[in-house]
Amino acid sequence: MVSRDVRGQDPSRRAVMRGAAVLAGGVMLGGAGQVLTAPGALAANEPRVYTRSEWEARKPTQTPQVLDTPPDHIVVHHTATENQSDTSRERAFSLSRGIQNWHMDNNGWVDAGQHLTISRGGHVMEGRWGSLPNIRDKRHVVGAHTADHNSHTIGIENEGSYGSAEPPALLMGALTETLAWLCTVYGLDPRKAIVGHRDYNSTECPGDKLYARLDELRGAVRERQSQMAARLEMMDYAEIPQEFRPSYPPLPRNERVERYYHGPVLGDGERDAG
């Protein structure tokens, strides 16, 4: 299902504001003296993302909703699973299948709720059906990862539990590259667009240790963007409705500890049943 702009605005007008780094009809890659067209620059900045077919995803029970409106925030999660020492690609693929099975079989959802998954070994995987091609097209597949905010946010699940453990370097490196790619595709300012799950919902997610590194991530992503392009046109944050912005609710007391559970993911008016 494809829907129009959920904010009632002309998507083409937003596309002008969200343009990629443009210079004389192309994009200048920093330090290389090379000018690429905007699509070429975005492709050059895209990390290796393993597709659903590569990790052998199940088919969704129903085609998720696709919006013409691009997202305005990127939500960082942790998977609330064990901190594995196995950093292989095979382990990463198994993680993706495990999350999808839990979301579909336990939660009764049409598919995995997150758009992207990053393993502790730094492997980046497509999550919900249609996420990768629609990111490339600057559109948005509605997920199930942040209650009351799924229509305008992208969710990235990061393998592990980071309440007291530090996220590993391989994961953080892949997360930085992934966030830089997403911010460039959608014309987002990482200083405002990158948030943690707890910034929207009352939850410990993505854990104190990973949450404490979001400022570091924002700076690293901004630096990555500056290396890639001479000029980036960012979304005007003032245009984002107040209800779409983080509300920073208080942390919960005694949040339940359960594998794959990391706080509220669907609001009262949201459903993801097949």
Structure explained in plain terms:
This protein is an alpha/beta fold. The protein has one domain (about 1-245): 3-Layer(aba) Sandwich (Lysozyme-like), CATH 3.40.80.10. About 30% of the residues lie in helices and about 15% in strands. The chain has helices at about 10-15, 40-45, 90-105, 130-135, 170-185, 190-195, 210, 215-230; strands at about 1-5, 25-30, 35, 50, 65, 75-80, 115-120, 125, 140, 155-160, 195. The strands form three sheets. It has a six-stranded mixed β-sheet, sandwiched between helices. Helix 5 crosses helix 8 (about 215-230). The longest helix is centred in the middle third of the chain and has 18 residues, at about 90-105. It is globular, with a radius of gyration of 18 Å.
Structure in a nutshell:
The protein is an alpha/beta fold and 274 residues long.
Separation, N- and C-terminal Cα atoms = 13 Å
Strand content: 5-15%
Total domain modules: 1
Going by CATH, the homologous superfamily would be Peptidoglycan recognition protein-like
List segments where confidence is low: pLDDT < 50 over at least 5 consecutive residues. 2-37
Task: Please report the first level of CATH classification, the CATH class.
Answer: Alpha Beta
- Structural class comes to alpha/beta
The biggest beta sheet, please? 6 strands, mixed
Total number of β-strand segments?
11
- Radius of gyration, in Å, reads 18 Å
Give me the side-by-side strand order of the main sheet. Answer: 4-8-7-10-6-11
